[in-house]
What does this fold into?
Amino acid sequence: MSKVASIFDLECLARERLPGVVFDYIHGGSEQQLTVQRNLDDMRALALRQHSLRDVSHRDTRVTMAGDPARIPLALGPTGLAGLTWANGECEAARAAVDFGVPFCLSTCSINSIEDVAEAINQPFWFQLYLMKDHKVNASLMRRAHDASCSALVLTIDLHTQGKRWADEKHGLAVPPRLTPANIMQMVGHPRWLANMAGSKRHTFGNFEHEIKEAGSIGSLSKWIEEQFDPAFDVNTARRVRATWQRKLILKGVMNPDDARTAIDIGADAIIVSNHGGRQLDGAPSSISVLPEIVDAVGDRIEVLFDGGIRTGGDIVKAIGLGAHACLSGRAWLYGLAARGCKGVTCALTLLEQELQDCMLLTGLDNLQRIEPGVVTAQPPLGRR
Ligand code: HOC
It folds into this structure.
């Protein structure tokens, strides 16, 4: 088995192992993928300034995220269809997260259901909610998350429609994947994936099997989302969710100071600065570029979490250095899951932790919550004044 040195290696393994229809879904973004690229480019463009004459033999990376302990400041962010990359993928990823000691967030659009994950880990986890037009479905999902002891509800606010992912449209992405001649060729060409998927408990959206009649086989995903998801979702809807859900509430998809202040106003416990990994509004700025102004706007009145372009431990330091309390990542762990299941997720987390430790050693940090200004900067311009 090839040696994995970075998240980028896991990405390559995922690309090799998955049929194109599945890999393109997890890897891609909307339209021209401008925002996907910005998340990566802007993160890379930041510089880390070192302080070397410091004793950093003791380093503390622990933090609490929305009240839950995390061994490193990173939670596994919600990602749709993870269970199409590996049999029972959401349960496998949740197990890896629990064993490692970081929060796991299950997507509404997962293959394993809320109950599957609760049974697999027997520990609290986070549940991400998309609001449907049918309020009965929303109420039922919240009730089920509550009954499964979910400690936090992550309410995604940026999916009034699904960003158009051109690759998914060309593949005719459906759930379960549609058996077109091209897709059959791809699947047959990936026998390890095919054999593994045969062991899957489910092949469609586990959370909707009893909620939405046609959820057993969804022909066109984007059409289904248009039909089911609620474009009327506004601040009053978010207030109603707050009134219903008594545990921690996190608003995901905050990209401007106004929405951040509204989150405080409605009584959310945390926000996630996120452009949905560049999968929604193509052309949106990178999440890292808007983080400082959002942090300035809300101060420490709410926990500010960050998502968007985390591929190394140094990226976590960058986000925290610019004011985030902690981070979430989607693709980094998904590549691990797609490459090697539960072990691959553990591998992704271990790599990120090692890189985080190295970055702390080399920048002179013993505690991430006390990063002084100036550690994370724009790359200084070349040349003398
Ligand atoms: C496959 C379900 O987070 C994504 C999801 C949201 C879209 C829901 C569709 O693909 O970015």
